[in-house]
Amino acid sequence: MDASRDPPDWLTEQPGLTALAVVSILLALLVIVPYLQYVLFGVVLAYIAHPVQQRLERYVRPTIASLVVVAATVVVVLLPLVYLLTVAFRQGLLVVEWIRDEELDVATIEQLLESNGYAVDLVELYEANQDRIASGIQQLTDAAINVVGGLPNMFIGLTITTFVLFGLLRDGVRLVEWVQWVIPVDDEILADLQEGIDELMWASVVGNVAVAVIQAIMLGAGLWVAGVPAVIFLTVATFVLTLLPLIGAFGVWIPASIYLLATGSTTAGAAMVVYGMFVTFSDSYYRPAIIGQTGGYNAVIVIVGIFGGLVAFGAIGLFLGPVVLGATKLVLDSFARVRTGEEPPGAVADADGGPKPGSDATDADDSTGSESGGDGASHPDEPTDRTG
Q1: Which regions are flagged for Basic and acidic residues bias (predicted)?
Q2: What is the DSSP string of 213-272?
Q3: What gap in Å lies between CA 296 and CA 322, rounded to an integer?
Q4: Which of 45, 193, 348, 351 has its CA 20 to 30 A from that of 250?
Q5: CB within 8 A of 78, min separation 6: which ones?
Q6: Intra-chain end-to-end CA distance of the chain, in Å
Q7: What is the sign, positive or negative, of the torsion defined by CA atoms of 373, 378, 379, 383?
Q8: Model pTM?
Q9: What is the pLDDT of residue 378?
Q10: pLDDT at 356
Q11: What would you measure as the largest C-alpha separation in the chain, in angstroms?
Q12: Which of 164, 279, 298, 311 lies closest to 213, judged by CA?
């Protein structure tokens, strides 16, 4: 490691400057934290739009390219997103009002279930939990009022997102180089971490969102054809639930099927059950095809990262929570590797498990028969060694 990057010597020689740096970082965090989720949203958008920025820079200056990409992002992503959320919000209020006014014919649904061999006393169940349901509806109403009251703050936040997006697109490469220069870590380790975090970002931000969008559009189209009301609200709900582990599209098409059956649309209800199962199980095809296999992105990291990220970062935590946990594991692996000079436990076993489906690592595995991370191993194999 370069002598100028040796933390112990540097801390000993410049304790005052070190304390000033720590205080400056803390003050900067105090400024960023109130709008942290919007800043992170800008980071996510910049990560997705960066390949487009690179292509445009072949023909125009970086500033012009950034302005074009930001304008396209606002028109193609932000404005449609705001519109969809507004429509979904209105339809969601109608659904809440419908349930609150007791237009839900629980007895009819119960009779229908009993005629199909399912003896369930929904009326008693509904009456026994009526207070809880009313409390939940009241909480939803209060949350809706808070959202409306927070519109000015949301506008400021989206403005911050737009400027963060522009700044990262134009100067993102130089920012990454500056961070690598500032952090007292060996360049080779930083490059290794950057590569692993990039794969985590791809899996969580690009891959998961793509799978959720595909399934939401598929199910939304089926709901529209079946004549289910509040299609926009249910489509947005499908997108959100598909991002959540253990729930998925089940949380939308099962109630929709019950609604269709209860309203006498037996054929449409049965068709929705079949189509809903097709949409749900398509996840097993789309997710491996788009995301592949990333060693730092396992089930535990996904589940804890998503729900913990929601609490820590807000809605953007759905995507960044797993990235934070996965990146933490990568950093600790690198720390332990430097300290011990050994690979993480399980690295050899993971390497023997095989490469990503459809990757170019098959030939590398066949020729070496061992873990990567040495000389000339292909890119898809590298996360196995970093993450174990």
Answers
A1: 378-388
A2: HHHHHHHHHHHHHHT-S-HHHHHHHHHHHHHSTTTTTHHHHHHHHHHHHHTT-HHHHHHH
A3: 9
A4: 45
A5: 158, 161, 162
A6: 24
A7: negative
A8: 0.65
A9: 38
A10: 40
A11: 82
A12: 279
